[in-house]
Amino acid sequence: MRSPFEILEGYERRSLAHAVQLPEKQFAADLWRGVGYRVGTRRLVSDFREVVEIVPMPPVTPVPGAQPWLLGVGNLRGNLFPVVDLKQFMEGRRTVLHEGQRVLIMRQAGGDVALTIDELYGQRSFEQAQAIEPGELAQGRYAHFIDRAFRSDTQEWGVFSLSLLSRTPEFRQAAA
């Protein structure tokens, strides 16, 4: 008499013998991947390693005496974090908040920070052959945070460094 474990092993062996093998996904060594989003008229991407998560806009409690780009403090699963209007910080114009608004959560020394964006595009992948000079994408305040870009079809995407943003003294000093 076979034990229940031996019977299950037999099922597994027969199942695997008939399983269709999925092709292995081959990623080019020169493939760059990130999260795509829009701030104002700029299409931007940030490295996956810089974006901790993407969540719906949490309820925000305003902070008196803060810079106008600091919308307040949000709470995600019991963790408090600042919520920053990225467009207001970069361009001086407030993001129009809407139902279904998403925020990017980035990590910085001292805790996470939520960044509002105008539109989320999701995962984007680019090959090195698609690399271009950032040009207009890196004008104004963006020049400090965008040092390269990619072209995909007719769209240009600036690579926005969230790690540089988190180390910027002005960003770290939110008191008005």
TrEMBL record:
Chain ranges of the CheW-like domain: 31-171
PROSITE patterns: CHEW
Biological process per Gene Ontology, one example term: signal transduction
CC terms in the record's Gene Ontology section: cytosol
SMART domains xref list: CheW
Superkingdom of source: Bacteria
InterPro entries referenced in this protein's UniProt entry, alphabetically: CheW, CheW-like_dom_sf, CheW-lke_dom
Pfam family, one: CheW
Xref: PANTHER family: CHEMOTAXIS SENSOR HISTIDINE KINASE-RELATED, PROTEIN PILI
Protein name: Pilus biogenesis protein
Record gene name: pilI
